[in-house]
Amino acid sequence: MMQSFIVEHYLNSTVDVYCGGPDIFRGTIKACADNVLTLDNEGKLTHIAIDKIIAMWAQ
Question: One Pfam family for this entry, by name (predicted)?
Answer without folding.
Answer: DUF6897
